[in-house]
Specification:
Helix 1 runs parallel beside helix 2. The chain is built from eight helices and ten strands. The chain has 335 residues and is α/β, with parallel strands linked by helices. The structure holds iron/sulfur cluster.
Length: 335
């Protein structure tokens, strides 16, 4: 690694911004709909060498909707990258073999909240497919799997709230050996359902919007320190919440990452975060960054031995002794 090269915990690469669903909670963007071409992706991987070992193939869009997802994963493996895939869980059957065998794939995050946007019979069918895949993954792979619920916070994640009863029932039936009894609800906590399989309830976050009122002038964020994101057209942005590319810092197809990070906008943002000053208007309207604030672990929560691999690595604190995920895999994460 050269003297000016920064290493990130994770880099998000948006391989497609197309999706087979149109969930109500997802960000709407006017960017043209594109799939990243194979040679372009290979170029991105080349330019990320030495900057990270972990990729999340997602900003907007459904990664499994990319027509060459198998080839993209093969390129990741050849480049020595570990991959974290976040999927809406509706395209698993067509990719079952790939997901169970791709050597680059380290973690699969399945957004169960997407299922609530579908017709009840379709939802049940997909949940069955998800459970079948998870069972097979436990048996035959080393994959980590995070089953995520948005819009289930401490108040609404009880079975009494009604909305997710059936889903919890199905999971209770499927994973009777869960380390924590979930038959009475989740109550805002994360649960280890099986070896390497986490059920993570999370409050739904609001995408930062320039049209929203300014919320904070002061504060910090882990963007550009732990992570950054590359949109499907190569635009480098500070974080995976910048769905419209408002925080564009440069383009990976035209500049090296070192050059981009040395640019005036990236430098101002980093210096601002270091001094608790939110330089960018989008950051002043972002509540998600508060999830990056380091929290004291809840010593009474269920144990987790896998730092940063429970599906919440965006918000996992890096120091082992303060890693909330070691104690509770329910802490919030990105999309
Ligand atoms: S404050 Fe929000 S919008 Fe700004 S870089 Fe951080 S996560 Fe992104």
């Amino acid at each position: 690694m050269s003297r000016n090269q920064v290493e990130f915990k994770k880099i998000y690469v948006e391989i497609t911004n197309r999706c087979n669903l149109g969930c109500s909670f997802c960000a709407r963007s006017d960017r043209p709909l594109l799939d990243m071409e194979l040679n372009a992706f290979a170029e991105v991987l080349k330019r990320l060498q030495g900057h990270t070992h972990d990729l999340s193939l997602h900003v907007l869009g459904e990664p499994l909707f990319h027509p060459q997802i198998a080839s993209l994963l093969a390129l990741c493996h050849a480049s020595g990258m570990r991959v974290n895939l976040t999927t809406n869980g509706t395209l698993l059957n067509g990719h079952r073999q790939l997901l169970l065998t791709a050597p680059a794939l380290h973690q699969l995050n399945i957004s169960l909240h997407s299922l609530n946007e579908l017709r009840a019979d379709t939802t049940r069918r997909h949940l069955k497919e998800i459970i079948a895949l998870v069972r097979e993954a436990i048996r035959s792979t080393a994959l980590y799997i995070s089953l995520r619920f948005w819009d289930m916070d401490a108040r609404t994640s009880s079975r009494d709230s009604g909305k997710h009863h059936w889903l919890l029932d199905e999971l209770v039936t499927a994973f009777t050996d869960a380390a924590v009894d979930i038959s009475s609800g989740l109550h805002g906590r994360g649960v280890l359902l099986a070896d390497r399989v986490f059920l993570n309830p999370e409050p739904q976050f609001a995408w930062p919007r320039l049209s929203s009122p300014e919320a904070d002038k002061y504060g910090s964020c882990r963007a550009l320190r732990d992570h950054l994101a590359i949109l499907v057209d190569g635009t480098v942005v500070a974080c995976c919440l910048d769905a419209d590319g408002h925080l564009a810092l440069g383009n990976i197809f035209h500049q090296s990452l070192v050059e981009i990070l040395a640019g005036p906008r990236a430098r101002r943002m980093r210096e601002g975060f270091a001094h608790q000053w939110l330089v960018e208007p989008l950051c002043r309207r972002c509540s998600y960054r508060r999830r990056f604030v380091r929290r004291i672990p809840d010593r009474s929560a269920s144990a987790c031995s896998e730092e940063g691999v429970c599906g919440e690595s965006e918000s996992c604190t890096p120091a082992k002794d303060v890693c909330v995920q070691q104690k509770n895999p329910s802490a919030s994460a990105g999309n």
